Structures are given as C-alpha cells and as structure tokens.
Amino acid sequence: MAALQFTPPPIAGGRCRPRFRSTRRPVQCTSERQALFNRIAPVYDNLNDLLSLGRHRVWKRMAVSWSGAKEGDTVLDVCCGSGDLAFLLSQKVIALDFSTEQLQIAASRQHERTKACFKNIEWIEGDAIDLPFSDSSFNAATIGYGLRNVVDRKKALEQMFRVLKPGSKLSVLDFNKSSSPLTSSIQDWMIDSVVVPVASGYGLASEYQYLKNSIKEYLTGKELENLALEVGFSEAKFFEIEAGFMGNLVATR
Hints:
Elements: E1 21-22, H1 31-40, H2 44-52, H3 56-67, E2 74-78, H4 84-89, E3 92-97, H5 100-112, E4 121-125, E5 138-144, H6 153-163, E6 164-175, H7 181-200, H8 205-216, H9 221-231, E7 235-241, E8 246-252
C-alpha cells in the first residue's frame, strides 16, 4: 500500500489543488447525509473551534492517545473529515471519508504544512461499511464523529475489526448519548440555543438541526461496548469525557 497519494497539480491562477484517491465504490449511505457533509465542509473547522471553544482539539488528542498508535505504525482514520485526527496521528496514515469536499480541504491543509510526517497521509474517498483494505492491514484505527452517522454501525465496526491486526486498538470519539436525563437535557438545550443559532450565522441552521436527533438515535456507551464485543473485539471500554457530553470507545482486536 502506498504511503502517499498526494499530488498537487497546477490549476488556473498558479495555485495547486491536492488530489486524493477514490475507491470508485458506491457509498452505502443516504445521499442527503453525504450532501450535508459536503455543504458544511468549507466552515466545518471554524464551527468546531467556535462551538467547542477549541475543546474538540483536546478530545481528539485523547482519542489518538487511546488508539495506541506509535511511531512506525500504519494507522487507519475512518470518516476523517478535514483531517484533524490524521494530522495528530502523523504516522503512516490512511484517511478515508465519503465527502469529496471534506477530503479536498484535508488535502489542502496537508499541502500547507511543512513537517515531513504530514506527508505520510493518504486521502481516500470511500465507505466506512465497505473498507477497501486487506484483512489485518493496520496497527491502529480511529474514527471521530463518524460512527454515529454511518448507515450500518455494526457493519462499520465489523469492517474496522477486519482490517486491524490482532492486538490492535480502535478508538471511537463522538457525542455521548448519556443515560443521565440532566446531561441529555443540557445537551439538547446547547444544540437548540447555541449550536443551531451559531450555525445559522453561516447559513447552515438546517444542516446542524440534524445533530440532536442523530445523538438520540446513537448508542449509549454500554451499547457501544456490547456491539464491539459482538462483532469480535476482545475488549471494549467506553469513557465519558467533558462532563459526559462526549465519549470515547476503546476496543481491542
């Protein structure tokens, strides 16, 4: 597997547009969800910083730490978005997403960075429930704010289990579906009173209104642990972070 598929061909005006490799497989998700992430891509990073007051960077570092990835490993980042986790991993990283626009932004960010380690990232357009990789290919895997949005979470976990080497870890960062009524109420209020109004300033109110329902339709920490064990992981532990508003599943192959 090539470590790098990053080729910045010249385009009009003397600028460069980094390319990424497509798997050329149909993405098995709703076209509406795929279109949503393409629409929010241009302001996704700014909104993450604004809405979390920059705290998302701390949570992502925690997720990377829990993955157990170390120097020399080949790491998979599923639903990579604009590349935050991939850049933090900065090993030999294969970063996959179904959003063309998010991948273009991720590749552009890579082109702007000078450290050699950032060049070891390959961007791939593909599907979390149909990973185009051989069995036991990766030493670690991450997925940040992605499992909640895939059409078949069990199949996505099965795919990540399949491509991980025995003993490797998967780290899954996302919003926490809390079992605490108080935490859930505060989370709903934050989305309705802060997230959606702020997003509306970018013309994206309807795009962010989906967030509350997607959390309600997600799995609790215990349910995530059970699902990971069901698909074959030997160990699974869910950690609540940020006062229970976020959570991270750590599963060992």
